[in-house]
Automatic annotation (TrEMBL):
Domain Histidine kinase: 41-258
Designated name of the protein: histidine kinase
Taxonomy, superkingdom: Bacteria
Location relative to the cell: Membrane
Length: 267
């Protein structure tokens, strides 16, 4: 990721033929500053779960004889949860690298978006266990030409956020509909929503609304990956707040590939 960013910065600097030495020095300093900020953010996100894993595993090793089953189980759960968090973070970084290096070539095929919503939901069953899930995708929703893996990741990230930022026992709704020459997929939650000033910025890498809130494990990468993937497939993604009550709405628009579903064409 650093190399991809540094290459991009170096290219940008080279392209500006007329910059003076002073400007050049300033640009180089800015690149260094960005690299530093990125490095410290990434180190923090790697170090925090690692510290928990090492602490819990160390306690288990040193005191296992004095611990009851419940305490041992709790320490083991911490090891597993924090390992999952680490692995999610590393997967996010790899996705970012693919996007940043411009090597991502979507693997297009015709899909019924409802199927991809279904796969994303089944991957998220553990995450959404405490929420009430409602899905309404009409069977006659037009097909879209997308990379199923990328769209599934986008939906997974949005569902993961809805479950993370909206309290337990609230509803998460996934709705699909056709609108002109696109289909829309919305993930709607009953959380506290997003401050108006942050609605665009949340799509920036490493941007988090509640900076000190480490209770909700996150990297600030999920939504920038969503935007990168959706735009790579020729679609758009936007965030809004609900008007009927508090809560966020994330809407993905994707161009319709075939006006009628294949099943109807065959009839
Ligand atoms: P992460 O969740 O790892 O912090 P994201 O890029 O997925 O990173 O989200 C960026 C920020 O946007 C989050 O930290 C959170 O502040 C805000 N956010 C995302 N989804 C929601 C949501 N459904 N409700 C409220 N805030 C949200």
């Amino acid at each position: 990721l650093f190399d991809a960013l540094a290459d991009q910065a170096a290219l940008a600097i080279e392209r500006v033929q007329l910059v003076s030495d002073v400007d050049r020095a300033r640009l180089a300093a800015e690149t260094d500053r960005l690299r530093g900020a990125l490095l410290s953010s990434i180190s923090h996100d790697l170090k925090t779960p690692l510290a928990s894993i090492m602490g819990s595993a160390g306690t288990l090793k040193d005191f296992h004889e004095n611990l009851d089953d419940a305490a041992r189980l709790e320490l083991l759960s911490t090891v597993i949860d924090e390992s999952e968090r680490l692995s999610r973070f590393i997967a996010n970084l790899l996705d970012m690298t693919r996007l940043g290096s411009g090597t991502m070539e979507p693997n297009y095929a015709l899909h019924f978006a409802g199927d991809i919503v279904g796969t994303a939901l089944s991957r998220a069953t553990k995450i959404t266990a405490g929420h009430v899930m409602r899905v309404s995708i009409p069977q006659d929703l037009p097909m879209v030409k997308v990379d199923a893996v990328l769209l599934e990741q986008v939906l997974f990230n949005l569902i993961d956020n809805a479950a993370k930022y909206a309290p337990e026992n609230t509803a998460i709704e996934i709705r699909g509909w056709a609108d002109g020459d696109s289909i829309r997929l919305a993930v709607i939650d009953e959380g506290s929503g997003i401050p108006a000033d942050d609605l665009e910025r949340i799509f920036d890498s490493f941007y988090r609304v509640r900076k000190g809130d480490f209770v909700r494990a996150g990297t600030g990468l999920g939504l920038s990956i969503c935007r990168g993937f959706v735009e790579a497939m020729g679609g758009r993604i936007k965030a809004a707040n609900r008007t009927d009550r508090t809560g966020a709405i994330f809407t993905v628009s994707l161009p319709i590939a075939v006006q009628q579903p294949i099943s109807q064409e065959i009839k």
